[in-house]
Amino acid sequence: MVDLYFLLEYPIFRDFGDADLEALSGRVQELRFAKGQAICHEGEAGDAMYVVKEGVLDIQRMESGHLHHINLLSAGEFFGEMSLIDGSPRSADVLVKEDALLIKLPVHVYQALKSELPSTALKIADVLLKTLSHRVRRSTKRALESERKQGAA
Ligand code: CMP
């Protein structure tokens, strides 16, 4: 059983009650990764999403021979949800920047939860949607800022 109560420290997971956390604790895995390890690579099939319990992860992508750092993740954040949601290959590389402890939620477990424990599955979906919405807002802001800078140059 994996202790998931740390999630309640983060506002985005506050809707999760004891029943959700207990049900999930027997269905997820806790995995340790050392600094420098790659969790996944762009283009690979994605079979799970991961929540960061400890450590720092670097999301990056090679574009036209240049390495772009997309985001840094720490405890309470997650990655791998894009493949989990749409079944597409991984959209970026994820590397361990500081030794990490991750909670792995496999796709098949998430799919099974939808019929076995729909209210828990809905809370997970809600967290994913809120995060994706936040990212769209951030991308819009960055795109507008970049347009403004180009216009000023
Ligand atoms: P996935 O595509 O499954 O695997 C790579 C992960 O990197 C992806 O899911 C997201 O969790 C994360 N990721 C990719 N692009 C971005 C982005 N623009 N902002 C934040 N995280 C991202």
What best-fitting shape do the alpha-carbon axes yield? globular
Our Rg estimate from Cα atoms comes to 17 Å
What is the arithmetic mean of pLDDT?
97
The topology string of helices and strands comes to HEEEEEHEHH
Overall helicity: 25-40%
Helix count, DSSP H or I runs of 4 or more residues:
4
Distance between the termini: 56 Å
> Which sheet architecture does the biggest sheet show?
6 strands, antiparallel
Which band does the percent of strand residues land in?
25-35%
What small molecules are bound in this structure? adenosine-3',5'-cyclic-monophosphate
Quick summary of this structure?
With 153 residues, the chain is an alpha+beta fold. Helix content is 39%, strand content 31%.
Would you kindly provide a written description of the structure presented here, covering whatever features stand out?
This protein starts with 17 loop residues before the first helix and ends with a helix. With 153 residues, the protein is α+β, with helices and mostly antiparallel strands. Helix 3 packs across helix 4. The mean pLDDT is 97. The protein contains 4 helices and 6 strands, in the order αβββββαβαα. Strand 3 and strand 4 form a beta hairpin. Strands 1, 2, 3, 4, 5 and 6 form a 6-stranded antiparallel β-sheet that branches. The chain has helices spanning 18-25, 81-86, 107-116, 118-152; strands spanning 29-33, 38-40, 48-63, 66-73, 78-79, 93-106. The structure holds adenosine-3',5'-cyclic-monophosphate (CMP). Adenosine-3',5'-cyclic-monophosphate binds at residues 40, 46, 59, 70-71, 79-83, 90-92, 94, 135.
